[in-house]
Amino acid sequence: MGDPPPDPEPRPQQPSSRRSSQVSQRRSRELSQPPPTISEEVPPIAFDGRVLQSGQGILASQTNLQDWSSGPPLTQQEMFQAEEAQLGGVEYTSLNMGFQPQPYLEEGGIQAARNASLMLQQLQQGQGSLFQQLDSAYLETQPNFLGQFNMYQGEDLQFNQGALHGPYMRDDPALQYSPSELGFMPFSMEVPEPEPRELAVQNAKAYLLQTSVSCSLSLYEHLVNLLTKILNQRPEDPLSILESLNRTTQWEWFHPRLDTMRDDPEMEPNYETADRQKALFLRSGAAGEGEQEMEEEVAETAVPNIMETAFYFEQAGVGLSSDESFRIFMALKQLVEQQPIHTCRFWGKILGLSRSYLVAEVEFREGEEEGEEEEVEEMMEGGEGLDTHAEEEGEEDEEKVTDVIPKPTWKPPPVIPKEESRSGTNKYLYFVCNEPGRPWTRLPHVTPIQIVQARKIKKFFTGYLDAPVISFPPFPGNEANYLRAQIARISAATHISPLGFYQFGEEEGDEEEEGGAGRDSYEENPDFEGIPVLELVDSMANWVHHTQHILPQVRWGAH
Amino acid sequence: MDAESLLLSLELASGSGQGLSPDRRASLLTSLTLVKRDYRYDRVLFWGRILGLVADYYIAQGLSEDQLAPRKTLYSLNCMEWSLLPPATEDMVLQTSVVKGRFMGDPSHEYEHTELQKMSEGEKVFEEEVVVQIKEETRLVSVIDQIDKAVAVIPRGALFKTPFGPIHVNRTFEGLSLSEAKKLSSYFHFREPVELKNKTLLEKADLDPSLDFMDSLEHDIPKGSWSIQMERGNALVVLRSLLWPGLTFFHAPRTKSCGSIYVGTGEKNIDLPFML
């Protein structure tokens, strides 16, 4: 490309100026205005719909720089050439400076801006490769309006400044482009015309570089990224995973890497859990007074050795992973520190729909009943008071009515009183938590009616203790009660030990009397020697239940 | 779960409480490698363990290059010696559907089932009770097949379909993102699609044919038959099937690790709709 020798130059000036006016009128988006009016209209937002009527205006011709859509390259060049001639030099210098800080340009726009700025730099030095730049920039798509607008914005601002100094700077002999003087380029443009092949290559590249209104990326960029990725990663057999790679690269455009300064929102729960569990670990290393207290109670530490039991369970193929067991151990330790606990045992894990439960079986120290029990009783008494009130009112109403409605003779079966704490099914207290590190919640005592109903229904646990249990027959209570009832049933039915491991505690009083009531407590038999494993495996006779079954009327009793 | 990442997978799937003892784990590592060599499988999966009264069955499956092709199933009682099981047929499934209760643990055990069959002798048509013997091996095959068809899970994007037909492991699968991992629609049944053709055109337009060629878990009946939980904060997502209790599928979001294991009694939870 390049200019034809100076001969045709004077000639195209008129047709080009004519063309420029045509072009400018044709176009609907003329931004720039002649200098005198620029200061008024520079709020550069008002881009749209203003057709510049000053076809011969310097700045109209400036916009022609960006009008790539019209005409074949050669004539365009001529137009440029002629119009460049008309542009004031001041504008160029200021334009040049104005082009540097344009971070808001989009990608394609950046290309255009870069080309344009290069172009202008060339203009100052001489127009050696200016038109080459123009040519490649010409091949950029026309819809790249936004980029152009941004450029215009900068240009407008610069024009503003330039406009103030315009008349004086034009006479500056250092400037080469004063309209009056420009009849020919300072030095001849000896760049030869592009070969057809080269032109085809450039056309193809321009096509690839085009971006659409909906997406600011060009195919060219995408392919560049894709190939770079493949070359960097060098996967085996890339052809077969080409589509996946393509999709991944596309996906990456819409999911930019987050700022390192900002927290990744998706990872927040991870970090929270980790913080909570870190607190678990730190508590275990209690310093100072805590240590002294622990030393005194070392003989009677309530926390069971979870790791040891987990080891044995693992040999059987049952159990949680070792780090989860350790965390449970830490959590139990935390529980022991918080509550006045005499003995503690990890009962197990119950899986739920949204969350799971970790259950700890606990016995309080003597006389350390929590106040919760009393509160519950008070509430019950208050409830009964209300009931009697209602009954009285009902009776009054009935007296007024002439027809006496027969009172039903049905009386609900007497409510089986629940067993007291520390006896029977409520011998142990149960604490649950959802995850090691979360606070432990105490489960209420179980009532016989709940066990009866629990035998009749089969429901999943959701993981939330206050969730209602919707079933038929209706279960009296929420999930916490259901959980407690199931725990009671499981414990009663499945706790076994080898024969002779436990012996019944010696009790004062007549054995005859005790025999009827059943034997409540058991303790480890110090004389237990252990039964060889083979005998244990052979028959079931060597295994016994050491807790008592729950009878149909839901009392502990011998079976 | 893949035999190559067996230890890690077992660790991640252990939240359900059932796992393997160390000696079994060690023997699995060696024996599965040998199985892969002997049978020339592309991938060997440790499918899981079916608990029997007397003994447990350990099941493994071998896959060829095409991931959705019918798999070969092997079982073992001691994790060392593996025997190939015959492929499941519909007759088998029908036959064994009458057998209820636990597995015995002895592959040669035969269940007896009395059926009323119409026999005609001459002109008389009468029903006679026929005792049908069903082998435990057959029952094993059909149960494994049912579990695979019903609840084998794979995350979306882990496999992709090429225009030439076979289905490959997607090596660029980076794992599901956290928001996707919590949704049931990002997990597929690892089997030939059944419901895909019933989708409306509008739904199909949103699908990507190279990735969405299997049924998703979203439309499983009964609704809610999957329990999806995040463990360890958001570091692990665990899906448990409620229809076949004992099937656990785990996936660590944003990583490639995923796998499923079945450890259970091999009984379908018929009471599921009442339990939800």
From TrEMBL, chain A:
Keywords: Cell projection, Cilium, Cytoplasm, Cytoskeleton. It comes from the Eukaryota. Residues 1-13 have a biased composition (Pro residues). It comes from Leptonychotes weddellii (Weddell seal). GO terms for biological process: axoneme assembly; cilium movement involved in cell motility. InterPro entries: Radial_spoke. Its main location: cytoplasm. Coiled coil: none annotated. It is found in: Cytoplasm, Cytoskeleton, Cilium axoneme. The gene is RSPH6A. Transmembrane segments: none annotated. This is Radial spoke head protein 6 homolog A. Residues 1-44, 387-419, 506-525 are annotated as: Disordered. Residues 14-25 have a biased composition (Low complexity). GO terms for cellular component: radial spoke. Residues 506-515 have a biased composition (Acidic residues). It holds the Pfam family Radial_spoke.
TrEMBL record, chain B:
The gene is RSPH9. Its main location: other. Signal peptide: none annotated. It is found in: Cell projection, Kinocilium; Cytoplasm, Cytoskeleton, Flagellum axoneme. Belongs to the flagellar radial spoke RSP9 family. The keyword Methyltransferase does not apply. The keyword Cytoplasm applies. GO terms for biological process: axoneme assembly; cilium movement involved in cell motility; motile cilium assembly. It comes from Leptonychotes weddellii. One of its GO terms (cellular component) is axoneme. This is Radial spoke head protein 9 homolog. Keywords: Cell projection, Cilium, Cilium biogenesis/degradation, Cytoplasm, Cytoskeleton, Flagellum. Transmembrane segments: none annotated. The lineage of its organism: Eukaryota, Metazoa, Chordata, Craniata, Vertebrata. It comes from the Eukaryota.
